[in-house]
Amino acid sequence: MTERVETQGISGEHYNFAYLDEQTKRMIRRAILKGIAVPGYQVPFAAREMPMPYGWGTGGVQVTAAVIGKNDCLKMIDQGSDDTTNAVALRNFFVETTGVDTTTKTKDASIIQTRHRIPEENLTKDQVLVYQVPIPEPLRFLEPRETETRKMHALEEYGLMHVKLYEDIAKFGHIATAYAYPVMVQDRYVMDPSPTPKFDNPKMDQMEALQLFGAGREKRIYAIPPHTKVVSLDFEDHPFEVTKFEQPCAICGAEEIYLDEVILDDAGNRMFVCSDSDFCEERRDVGHVGHLGTNPLEAEGND
Amino acid sequence: MSTQTASSIFAKAPAPGLADPVHDAQSVFRSAMNALAQPGTVQQLDILTLSPPAPLSVAATALVLTLCDYDTPLWLDPTLATNGTVKNYIRFHTAAPFVESPAEAAFALVSDTKLLPAIASFAAGNAEYPDRSTTIVLMVDELTEDEGITLKGPGIKTEKQFSIAPAPAMFWQQMQDNSTLYPLGIDIIFAGTSQVAGLPRSTKITGLEA
User: Fold this and answer.
1) H or E stretch including B136?
2) pTM of the predicted model as reported, rounded to 2 decimal places
3) What value of ipTM does the predicted structure carry?
């Protein structure tokens, strides 16, 4: 639903629109333009201290604040859901400081800020997807020195990343990286897609919407323009594979989408439901029902 | 202070900037962002009440007021650089330091395509920091989609035809060379009368012979 929330004049009286001062917005906007011009390259920017701790999405919030206008409609998700703590807190932050319309419907939003998921529904060219990124440098856990990783990007020296994936195969028989799975952007930069499950990686390739990434603590912004080539790293004999689920969503019956595991009781019963809450809701609205019915709490054998 | 002195001060004061600095800058930025994210598409700016000194256009002025400040060394073309009214206007509204050398500029404002120096004279960034490059705001009379040279690359689904008028001699050739420097190179934001279009370094240019 799209709703207009009263701001009680807070934005007008106490804060600049979208919290940040205009000089900060200009600095972030310039970094966004550079990021768009060099897809996948991490542009340093002077991230500000925000009224929320690092790790809560300060990078994504700053990017959204620099982009958002009073006619935008904002959707805020955390692990696919509109109702989790991070999503609710950040949505309220923007409602208070901008007074823009908010929505939970993916197709109604002009800006979607996300923590760790890409909506199941295809995005359009009029939408902007803003990611909250904790560690923007895909090579950081392999090489701790920024001076070195910067050189590696400059020289397109990504052998180390392939060695890491190879070691996975040697140890486990398959590439064991399940989230933050590294991608190659437009055949030039290896990029961290933020801790989205690798299930979402194929959606980044040739996406119609503009994708912006903000890392507040690490002070980096990067971007993927629409229709940009994004390839998950792999080997010829171990091609990239998305996660597959054995059962459909327990309450809407959707298949081939990303599912969350929910523990139902102390006896080890569990169910799998859509991680994208809006997608699941829309399906149930048009009559799709999963094997646990629309309300799993009332399902048989669940006391 | 007598009224006469006050009016003489007002007579010398620079023309006003954006009427609504917060929301106007936001909407101009969104147009510029979409322009660079979808190279070769013409983005219409919202209606702005700007009365910049000649020869600046509304679109070019709006871009400079939106993107420049004391952090961005700005290079002006030789005509603008000798125009005191223009310099006062930009200095008053942005506080951007003017630089003599195009290679030192974060932004360049070029009021006439004839005055555009060699593209290679602007900063292209370096291998470790390709973002340390110049963004050129280039004033043109016309921006046309779906005819002219062919653009391909990020932001473009298959390919996109695009043309500017007037196009300086060797301009597209130079931009083609610029794209071979990728990830280094300069980015251009074209400013029409009330439209903008973008040409980032990532865009490949073909169809020059046509």
Assistant:
1) strand B135-139
2) 0.94
3) 0.95
